[in-house]
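Now for our specimen.

. . .
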Amino acid sequence: MGLVGGVTLTAVSPAAEVIAVQEPVMRVLVLEASALRLRADAEQPLLVAGLGSREQRLRALSVRKQRGQLRLTLEGRSRRSLSLALQRELRVRSADPRGIWLGKRRYRGELRVRSVGAGLQVVNHLRVEDYLASVVGSEMPESWPLAALQAQAVAARTYALAQHGKAGGFDLKATVASQVYRGVESETANTLKAVESTHSLVLVHGGQLIDAVFHSSSGGATEASGAVWSKQLPYLVSVPDHDQHSPVHQWDVWFEPHQLRRAFRETGGLSSIAVLGTTGTGRIRQALVQGPRGDLLLSGKQLRQRLGLKSTLVRFEMLASKSAKPGAGVGLKRFEHSFGDRKSSGAGTVLMGSWRDRTTASVDANASFMGLTPPPPVPPLPLHSTRRSRHQPLMLLAMGQGFGHGVGMSQWGAHGLAQRGADFRQILNHYYRGAEIVPYRQLQNSSLAFLWRSPQPGRVESMGDA
C-alpha cells in the first residue's frame, strides 16, 4: 500500500486461527490532529510494531510532532519516551473484541497513524462488514424499522466498495464527506442484524457497482444526479419521496445583518438575492447576491455553504424583523438569466449579461410506489428576487425543505416506506431505478471480485497487510 511518507500505527487482533478469506479491508480516515493517544481497554494490551525489531506490548501510546520528529510516550510496565523519524511506519493491534480507544472512540481492526503535512492522520483498516455495522448506526437511528436499516446497509456497502483502492492512503473519510462512521459505539444488535441479514449484497447497474449516494430528507421529491452534479446516471433519477414526517421536511432560519455581512464579505452584506435558475424539483442552481459594494453570482451549492443551509430547496424573503410575517416583506419576481461572458471562481462569479422573464419549473411526481398512494406533489418554490425597498430590510428569512443534496436514497423516505410495509429491496428499487441487488461475489471482471465467506463464531481473521 502506498503511504504518504509517514508513521503508521496499527491495531489488530492476533489470530487464534487464521481463515483465508478475501473480504475487502476498508481504509477509513478517522482522525487528523497534531497529537493523539491510543489506549487498550481493560487487560488486553496494544501490540505495537515499528518501534524496533519486535512488537511491544503497551497499555497506551501517545504521539505528537515536535521539531521534525515524532515524539512518542509509551505506557507499559513503565513509562518512557521515544523519538522517531517522520518516515517510520508503526502498527498497533489488540486482541480485545471491544476495540482500541482513540480519544473518546473505540475502533475495531487496525489503526494506522502517519505523519502527513504539519499533522498526523489515523486510518482505520477493518473488514467491510465490521465497518458497516458502525456506519448503519452512525447514519440512521438504530430504533428505525429493520427494512430501513437493511436498505442503509446495502447502500453503504455499495458506496464503500465503489471507493475501495481509489486513493493512496485511505478509501473513505469517517464524516459526511463519505459516510459517517463512529466506531464501536454505533454498533447495536439492530445494526448488526441489518448488516448480517444483507451480507455481501450490493447494488449494480450494467454489471458495475453503482454510485449509491444517499441523503437525509429530500423535501418531497429526490433530485436527478445530472441536475446537481455534472453527470446524469440512469439509476439516479428524480422520484417522489415519502419523507413528509421528517423533522426537516420543512424548515426556516433567520439571518441577522451581521451574519449576512460575514457570509457575503465581497458585497458588503446583502441587499437582495435573485434566484436565476432551479432544477426540476425547485432546488437552486444559481443565484445573484446583491449588496452595497457589488453583485456576486453563486451556484446553489455555494449559496448553501455560505449560509449553512440544510438544502438548496429554499426560497428567501427580506423582512425588517422576526416579528414581521412572511409575505409582508418585499415582493417576488421571477427571473431567468441569459448568461453572457463571465469569470468564475470558487467564491462566486462576476455577472455580465441580461435578464428576461421565465416561468417556474415544475416537479415531476409521476410514479406511485408498490401500489401505495404517492405522496402529494411538492409545491414548486418560485424563481424570485428579494428586491431592494425604500426602507432597506434588515433580516433574511430562508424557508426551505429537506436536508442534503437530494440525490439517491432519502433516509427519512426509507423510514416512511418501511413503516408502510416495504422491505429493503422495494425501498432500494424505488430510489435507485433499474439497479439490481446481487451478492458482491457474483460480479465479474472486477478487481475486487472474491469468495466472500460468512464469519464463523470463535475464529479470528487475520488482517494481513491489506
